[in-house]
Fold:
Amino acid sequence: MTQEDLFKNIIAHAKEYGFIFPSSEIYDGLSAVYDYGQNGVELKDNIKKYWWDSLVKLHDNIVGLDSAIFMHPRIWEASGHVAAFNDPLIDNKDSKKRYRADVLLEDHIVRLEEKIAKEVAKGRKRFAESFDEEQFRTTNPNVLREQAKIDQIRLEMNKALNENDLAALHQLILDCGIVCPVSGTRNWTDVRQFNLMFSTPLGSNSEGASQIFLRPETAQGIFVNFLNVQKSGRMKVPFGIAQTGKAFRNEIVARQFIFRMREFEQMEMQFFVKPGEEMKWYEYWKQMRLRWHLSLGLGEDLYRFHDHEKLAHYANAASDIEFRFPFGFKELEGIHSRTDFDLASHEEYSGRKLRYFDPETNESYIPYVVETSIGLDRTFLAVLSASYREEELENGETRVVMRIPPFLAPVKLAVFPLIKKDGLPEIAQEILKILRLEYNCLYDEKDSIGKRYRRMDAIGTPFCITVDHQTLDDKTVTLRDRDTMLQERIPIDNLPGIMDDKLNMKHWLGKLT
Structure:
């Protein structure tokens, strides 16, 4: 199965089993906008809670905030979004399709990387156990040639983006021979900038309304509340403010399912530090955030760091944690050293002092900021992509199973009576009554037990409890494991303790302390 086919299967599965639906589908949908179904909303909330608790619960110096989506328009002038929050766009004259110039170049680089991967695969097949991949990559002429192309394209692209040289971006696309995926032609327009913010009038009538923006990020709500949180919470630098919430960007080239949407959710933490100590904390949070991702158990080989060569106007260091989606390695989380740009800029535009007084040194200063910003929807997609499996069983059947980390699974437990009589449903309901106080549980008595197991595999339910006639004799039930499909007899009285060991999020949080 190709990666493209895999991704299509994941998207279809997400809809069929209540994870994600196209928004407004009965009206033919709305491009790049999606709704989370009954299983999707549970998984999303579990990811959010794990992120929140790992920061706010496990750190004495990190607190939470929920700022408004509507904010004073001057905030976006101070942040630089009005002047600089743009994407470089290019149109193909034949297909009339619009693309981001930098994404076209990045996709071209991915294709070159795929050529290298094929060469490496050939070498591995040829040399078998004696294959040395590092030596192969540094000596094979085909690999070296393609890598040189990649390095040169990156160099020229980053230079053009840093200098806002749109003509150079256009020429690089032509030099690379990039064609439109739809028309197959190279008939490109010039590259131009497009601002991504949504605007809306605010007021009781059109004449008196003022123009405001839907926030394109959640970070600014943290910065403008810096002193409110610091003073009311008696916070001492270094300290952090965490926030989750919706953000909105008028993405012209929205694609790849929920990876790039116009309405999405962020999980951000801004960590305020003393000037001169920002790089120490930047490195600290790079490692801490990677550790959080690895704790999900999706696989270490699915993650990598990508340090920025092109820095945003506010940053002196930046790195992405990238995840290997079915469409390649893409940004999952950004860690940025934002210097004092945000607080200093808001101080200038608002006329209010945004400084921290250090009682130990008797000095007042504008703190520097280290930011961790992760897309909740992208993390959801990462979990979905890494969990999806199509497995062939010993009897020749195929099962689709979502190997979602148990503590994140939308439904943690399913309780089944083997048949709908002989008092088995009543016992199953009593077990359900006990366990649903702690976990999201599901009761099902329809179809054969095998079909019920398959339904639970498809939504990622880690454990199924089956009540049968032996239960009437010895008060034990069958506990079935999603991943191994092994079944064992468990006394009913032991179920709460066993489920706590296997499902309680605190055990995963404990590994992060």
Summary: The first strand starts at residue 20 and ends at 22.
